[in-house]
Design brief:
- The chain is of the alpha/beta class and 374 residues long.
- The protein has 2 domains: 216 residues, TIM Barrel (Alpha-Beta Barrel), CATH 3.20.20.10; 129 residues, Beta Barrel (Lyase, Ornithine Decarboxylase, Chain A, domain 1).
- It contains 10 helices and 18 strands.
- Strands 1, 10, 11, 12, 13, 14, 15, 16, 17 and 18 form a 10-stranded mixed sheet that branches. An 8-stranded parallel sheet has the order 8-7-6-5-4-3-2-9.
- Strand 13 and strand 14 form a beta hairpin.
- Helix 4 packs across helix 5.
- The radius of gyration is 23 Å and the shape is elongated.
- Its cofactor is pyridoxal 5'-phosphate.
- One of its GO terms (molecular function) is pyridoxal phosphate binding.
- Pfam families: Ala_racemase_N.
Length: 374
């Protein structure tokens, strides 16, 4: 089998999703399963739905289109603010989108009217992480204007934390979101359908026994695919952390010094070269590099230490013994490494168990969209 490759265990992904769906349902919270790190794979999407996810969310319209073309039976949500240039595609393939700009909602309304389709809008609120979001004091006016647009259904409000600044979801900011929802309901005499509290970083808070208030939805990707929460990368009890693994092949294995020689400048990616001379080591090079993944997000097997990377090479120290050329090593992943690996067309994606196909091998075209090479 070719390398490098991602080995994707659908049974473990479905177990993780089913566990989180059930545990959060006990707290009155539904799960929108996020497929962006799965590159819109229909097979992974179907597993998430079979596990009980209420719908699918993705930040890329291309991934949503791929799932729609594969007849994935789900309500689709675009969880990144739409680009004006993609609004017509949005209205065609997406039921709900997260929005922060009235100019975008205005164009969605125009295109939805032409298509005679009602489009759902969730307004995102800024609660401290300083990524996307309407400032709380401006939310009332945004709701008022949104309600006036034809062919737009105001679905609710949401927020996003942790992604840009690492702000933790907690009792204070989640209570603020609940208060904003209740204020909007009282002001406009309506009942908000969706109050989306955030992403996988919210899982520890949601399962802690804290008062979840009006929060009734979370958008989960990393916690399902990797079994970890993003704030501290800690394993979530009862979940698999090895549902997706990287396999890479050794292409060189030699004894080499740890200290480079010659006049030293910047490396290809601007990193500093090693400064500590530890003598000679057993060094191996694997055929994968920074063009394909985030080397800092890889966890090597025991007795293997990552010591460097370039665009095409991952350099490891192999302890007291040389690793034979052709050996395949298995690496665990964090979210950063996973997203880049899934996007790389040079990394084969192998899904098991096979899903009714003669060869359940997921590859990527030049567009980066997922498809099966059957």
């Amino acid at each position: 089998m070719s390398a490098p490759r991602l080995e994707i265990d659908l049974d473990k992904i479905e177990h993780n999703a089913r566990s989180l769906v059930a545990r959060l349902a006990d707290r009155g919270i539904s799960v929108t399963a996020v497929t962006k790190a799965a590159l819109g794979s229909p097979e992974i999407a179907r597993s998430l739905l079979q596990a009980g996810a209420s719908g699918l969310g993705d930040s890329r319209i291309e991934n949503i289109e791929a799932m729609c073309h594969a007849n994935v039976p789900a309500s689709m949500t675009l969880i990144r603010s739409p680009m004006l240039s993609q609004v017509e595609r949005l209205v065609t393939h997406v039921e709900v989108s997260f929005n922060t700009e009235l100019d975008v909602i205005r164009k969605i309304s125009f295109c939805a009217q032409k298509a005679r389709r009602t489009h759902g809008v969730v307004l995102m609120v800024e609660l401290g992480d300083l990524r996307e979001g309407i400032m709380p004091g401006e939310l009332e006016n945004a709701v008022r204007q949104t309600l006036r647009f034809p062919y737009i259904a105001f679905k609710g409000i949401g927020t996003n934390l942790a992604c840009r600044s690492g702000v933790s979801p907690d009792a204070r900011n989640m209570a603020e979101l609940s208060t904003l929802a209740e204020s909007i309901e009282a002001k406009f005499g309506l009942t908000i359908e969706v109050i989306s509290g955030g992403n996988s970083a919210n899982v520890p808070w949601a399962l802690s026994g804290a008062d979840t208030g009006r929060i009734n939805n979370l958008r989960l990707g990393e916690s399902i695919l990797l079994g970890r929460e993003p704030l501290h990368r800690q394993r979530i009890n009862g979940l698999h952390t090895d549902a997706i693994t990287l396999i890479a092949e050794v292409i060189e294995s030699k004894v080499k010094p740890t200290q480079p020689w010659g006049e030293i400048g910047q490396t290809a990616f601007g990193a500093k070269p090693p400064t500590q001379d530890r003598g000679d080591i057993c060094q191996a090079i694997l055929a994968i590099g920074l063009q394909d993944t985030d080397a800092c997000g890889l966890e090597p097997p025991p007795d293997i230490k990552i010591v460097g990377a370039s665009s095409d090479h991952l350099i490891v120290e192999s302890g007291l013994h040389l690793v034979p050329v052709g050996t395949e090593l298995t690496f665990q992943l964090n979210y950063s490494a996973l997203v880049r690996l899934m996007t790389s067309p040079f990394v084969t994606k192998v899904i098991s168990p096979k899903i009714g196909l003669p060869d359940a091998t997921l590859r990527t075209r030049e567009t980066g969209r997922a498809f099966f090479d059957a």
